[in-house]
Amino acid sequence: MEHTIPIKTPFIKLEALLKYAGLVGTGGESKIRITEGEVLVNGQVCTQRGRKLVPGDRVELGGEILLVSEA
Q1: Tag placement on the chain: N or C end, fewer CB within 10 Å?
Q2: Range of the domain at 61
Q3: How many CB atoms lie within 10 A of CB 24?
Q4: Mean pLDDT computed over every residue of the chain
């Protein structure tokens, strides 16, 4: 399923986006899922928890798709 996530700031960090969107329950879970290569950013595996995402970026985890947009 695809969800649009509007942000009011210039960027949001990957681990924060996963928590904000409810795809993970805790920061610890976010860290594990990212470092184990379960997260795709713009179609490529991303293992950087602090990766800065900007409007237009697409994140995938467990069949869920998040599209970052401007608020």
Answers
A1: N
A2: 2-70
A3: 21
A4: 97
